[in-house]
Amino acid sequence: MIDQVLISVVNLLNEHIGTTEPDVVLGNLSMLDTYQEGVGDSFSDRVVVSIINIQQESTLRNTPANRQIFNNAGLPNGVARNPGIYLNVYLIIGANKDQYAIGLQRISQVLTFFQRHSIFTIADIPNLTEFNLDRIIFDLYSTSFEELNQLWGIMGGKYIPSVVYKMRLLYIDNVEEGAEINLVKIVDTRYNKLDA
Q1: Using CA of residue 76, residue 82, residue 86, residue 91, what is the dihedral sign?
Q2: What per-residue confidence (pLDDT) applies to 95?
Q3: What's the CA dihedral at 116, 117, 123, 126 to 10 degrees?
Q4: Contacting residues for 129 by C-beta, under 8 A, at least 6 apart
Q5: Where do the domains of the chain lie?
Q6: Which pLDDT tens digit goes with each residue over 45-81?
Q7: With 0-12 CB in 10 A as exposed, 13-18 as middle and 19+ as buried, what is 73?
Q8: Deepest of 40, 48, 135, 166, by most Cβ within 10 A of its Cβ?
Q9: What is the C-alpha to C-alpha distance for residues 26 and 53, in angstroms, rounded to an integer?
């Protein structure tokens, strides 16, 4: 799912940049200097979009596991199902261009693109409905010099012009039906006084 959403965003980004050949590719930025099997060429002279971290959105974790759904007759049934997961996917977009000035131009185009289109809906990416998504949101993520140094150190590469974005509220929900559970129909509020 994440790959298909990112491929759609990369295609829209390529349309925005407007080069004759696609300039933006989805790939592992830590493998800049290696040949990618099956891709047909390396990442040289390209803008590369790579995932650097995936986190669960902690503020939206408190959804109930037991849900009430209605059957075809309109009667309520209880279903036990694990709640869906909201994700924050952190992306680094690096311009590995042969000419430094063109790399800076591509990063500027990426910034302009996401500034204009920070929210993507079903109108922008029609296949979002296949994944039970109604929108994805891109936020510019500011990294400190220390974080940037650690990030590029982990990836084992030299620094190239890059920008980090957080793609947020990507919803993953396994649609398999859970076990049916009994609903609470009556609450007994009677109590007995205890003798001390």
Answers
A1: negative
A2: 92
A3: 150
A4: 122
A5: 2-171
A6: 889 999 999 988 776 666 666 666 677 777 777 766 6
A7: exposed
A8: 48
A9: 15
Residues 6+ apart with CB under 8 A from 18: none
User: How many Å apart are CA 33 and CA 28, to the nearest integer?
Assistant: 11
Burial of 46 (0-12, 13-18, 19+ CB in 10 A): buried
Residue 32 in this model has a pLDDT that exceeds 80 = no
Phi, psi of 53 (to 5 degrees): -165, 150
Tokens 């939206």 sit on residue: 60
- Going by C-beta distance under 8 Å and a sequence separation of 6 or more, which residues neighbour residue 5? 125, 127, 128, 131, 133, 136, 167, 170
- The reply to whether the predicted model has a pTM over 0.70 is yes
Q: What is the largest CA-CA distance in the chain?
A: 87
Query: What span, in angstroms and rounded, lies between the C-alpha atoms of 160 and 47?
Result: 10
- Please state, for a pLDDT cut of 90, what percent of the chain lies above it: 33
Whether the pLDDT of residue 132 is over 60: the answer is: yes
